[in-house]
Amino acid sequence: MRTNSFGQLSHLRLNNLYPLYALADKVVNKVLSLPSDLACMVNSTDWVERSILLPQYQQRLERHIQQLPTLDPDESAIVNQLADEGICITSLDALSIPYSQQLLKAARPITNELAQLSRAPSHIGKHTLMATAHHLTENPEILTWGLSERILKIVECYLGLPVGYGGLSFYYSVADGRDAGPRLWHRDKEDWRTIKVAVYLNDVDESGGPYQCVKSAINNWLVATLPKYQRLTHIEMQHLLSNSSTDWPISCVGKAGTVIFTDTARCYHRGKPPIQTDRSAIFFHYFSRFPKNPFYCDRSPLSSQQIVEFDRQLPPHLQGYITWRDRYPGIGRYIPKNYMRVDN
């Protein structure tokens, strides 16, 4: 009885202390992120964008247009749907990308480990767990899948520029129904256009935390009606959604192996809070090699040295995608990365 009572007491203390640890961690990360937040504010001023950043972006688009890869009809269909809707849902089977089964096989034990960890007393209260650098270095085929030729061709033709690969986020979302972290409505700030490619690792229905994206027409209206650079908060989005007579979001339900392409800089999106079953998914990150806000692009759990080592082990034609920042021009290369994490 003493052991049970002590265990219950320890469990209760951890449960009560977690919000304090999370708050302290968030405050520290916010302080560390001040340089990048300030740089983003500068980049978002009318004069800097109109006089410097936008002309540079347009010139790069014009110079690269003749170098874009040739797409087959299936790849063109994805790019066209992204351009029209901001989102395209497909599958690993339809994409026929080599080594997709190796990706799923390598991800399975990581999912199982995160599932067990989510129920440990030390992680009580965490709504989202993420694969660590150790997971990815021990299973390089997961990170390498994001450099598949077909994925890179699709992304390059949509961006219109050489691709920068931001690595991946491997999320395990606990079915607790909470609105927090990546479950909040938002748009990304990395670049003019930013692509995330999500791969479901388990079947996801409406109660299992599907990825959601606001429909194109509604999204365009929301962006157009706001003052420049202002973004709706999660609370504002929830208020609009609850008071709308029409269905705004697209819920991407699907079997394990479902693949979702989204322009997350253009579209409001989130992971719907799972309420009945946990969700495991990998999100691969892409932007141009000259992103507008490079300090927001470094989301990989790998250290800078680990990224360099991984790049060195790749075939020559794949080197440089993940180490894009080493060749980033200007002061943006030296501004420290943003430390605010989605699991806060």
Rg over alpha carbons: 20 Å
What is the molecular shape? globular
Q: In total, how many beta strands? A: 9
SSE order, one letter for each helix or strand: HHHHEHHEHHHEEEHHEEEEH
Number of helices: 12
Task: Name the helicity range.
Answer: 40-55%
Please identify the structural class as seen in this structure. Answer: alpha+beta
Distance between the terminal alpha carbons, to the nearest Å? 36 Å
Major sheet: 6 strands, antiparallel
What strand line-up does the widest sheet have? 1-7-4-9-3-2
The proportion of residues in beta strands is 15-25%
Which blocks of ≥5 consecutive residues have pLDDT under 50?
A: 1-14
Mean pLDDT: 89
Task: List its traits.
single chain, 344 residues, alpha+beta, six-stranded antiparallel sheet, three-stranded antiparallel sheet, 43% helix, 15% strand, disordered N terminus
Notes on the structure:
This protein is an alpha+beta fold. Helices cover 43% and strands 15% of the residues. It contains 12 helices and 9 strands. The strands form 2 sheets. A 6-stranded antiparallel sheet has the order 1-7-4-9-3-2. It has a 3-stranded antiparallel sheet with strand order 6-5-8. Helix 4 packs across helix 9. It is globular and about 50 Å long.
Brief description of this entry?
43% of the residues lie in helices and 15% in strands. It is α+β, with helices and mostly antiparallel strands and 344 residues long.
